[in-house]
Here is the input.
Amino acid sequence: MLLAFELVPAAIRERLELSEEPHPVLKTHCWLCCSGRFTPNGYARHRVHAKLEVVLHRFLYKLLIDPTLPNVLLLDHLCCVRKCVNPFHLEPVTHAENTRRGNALLFQAKTAPGISVHT
Ligand SMILES: [Zn+2]
Here is the structure.
């Protein structure tokens, strides 16, 4: 996993910090983007060139996991941390599945004390 982190371009790696503890289920660290530009809903942005800016987690997923990721699929944050860009914490899902999972998580957060949705 840390080998993959070393493959991240240096200019991007400078924006990232590893989470203090590994995720309890995924067993690996979140790669937290702590600087630069973000979307209004908290996802890190990455400027590819002067006229193209993309969300950073999707850029890294395509760079390190699957360059053929179809545009119709969203990347669900399995760690529930929006500023995490670790591609191994992401799973390609349909828009409908992403919505279903988000709604289930919100329901859990409302009904089970101690469960929170991280941003
Ligand atoms: Zn993560």
